[in-house]
Specification:
about 300 residues; SH3 type barrels; single chain
Length: about 300
């Protein structure tokens, strides 16, 4: 019985398995300790998230290296087999490999980060998690009007960053330009309409104009961009039915719907208080009168 126990304890395979178990435990103990004691002190959520993801990736790498070292004496005879198998696996898993390359590009290329609102692979929403293979998005839109969540979580392969455009609504410039159109009857006080729209735009925009201006100047320093107006701007065009005013304004990318509601509410109140000088227009239809017909009656000769 003792001899059997000694054979088991001194068996090379048992020793390798024990080495692997102890080595893997040490690797992940060190990584978790670093995450708990070092990375937890990082104040920025995005940097802390990236540090955790990268440390987990290195944990897997070190585990594979440990396995390779422990079984290095047995790998020589199967090198060719592994090479052929590796080529077949690489061809069969090319989408996974491209997705992994996409993850590296996302983490270090600045495509987007967790919390950003993006449109990726035709899916629009907020990034919840960036995995090694897939990005998890809380979807907005679809059957829900506006930029509101619809409750559907979507997993999008990271390979899409190489296959389709990535629209980032927040990124380095977390503001959007939006517009509302207001139809006004002909004969209204046009100057008053312009004043109302400009005043309401400045009231609702608040300090967004100045904040977005500073962000835009920062973008101009990094990229080749032309000058852009961040203050509310009013333009008009006359068509067959009415004078159409357009109010262009800057808005936070998550508050388009609420901002538009606030703008229309204040515009309606100001127009109602204009004493009839400004009137909304609606579609009108003019009925063309029928032409006059002259009918002459002739009695038949008997």
């Amino acid at each position: 019985m003792e001899e059997q126990i000694k054979e088991i304890l001194f068996n090379p395979t048992v020793g390798r398995i024990a080495t692997i178990l102890i080595g893997v435990a040490i690797i992940w103990f060190v990584i978790k300790a670093i995450q708990r004691n070092l990375f937890s002190k990082i104040k920025d959520n995005e940097n802390r998230y990236k540090a955790k993801k990268i440390s987990n990736f290195f944990g897997y790498v070190f585990t594979v290296i440990l396995l390779t070292i422990v079984f290095s004496d047995r790998l020589g005879g199967v090198t060719m087999v592994l090479g052929v198998a590796g080529a077949g696996i690489a061809f069969a898993m090319q989408e996974v490999i491209v997705s992994f390359a996409g993850w590296v590009a996302i983490m270090f290329g600045g495509f987007y980060k967790t919390g950003d609102r993006v449109e990726l692979g035709g899916i629009k929403g907020d990034v919840m998690d960036i995995g090694v293979i897939r990005t998890t998005i809380m979807e907005t839109g679809e059957w829900v009007d506006g930029d509101l969540y619809n409750g559907r979580m979507v997993l999008v392969a990271n390979s899409f960053v190489f296959k389709s455009p990535v629209f980032n609504y927040s990124g380095h410039f977390p503001f959007l330009w939006d517009e509302i159109k207001v139809p006004i009857q002909f004969g209204s006080n046009y100057s008053m309409v312009k004043e109302i729209l400009e005043h309401v735009g400045k009231e609702v925009a608040g300090d967004l104009s100045q904040r977005s201006r500073e962000k835009w100047i920062g973008l101009q320093k990094r990229y080749r961009l032309e000058e852009a107006q961040t203050e509310p701007m009013v333009s008009l065009v006359a068509n067959d039915n009415w004078v159409e005013y357009t109010l262009r304004y800057i808005v936070n990318y998550k508050k388009r719907r609420s901002t538009k509601t606030e703008l229309f509410t204040r515009i309606l109140e100001r127009i109602d208080a204009s004493g009839g000088q400004v009137k909304f227009a609606s579609a009108t239809f003019q009925l063309v009168e029928a032409p006059d017909f002259k009918v002459r009656m002739r009695a038949d000769d008997e």
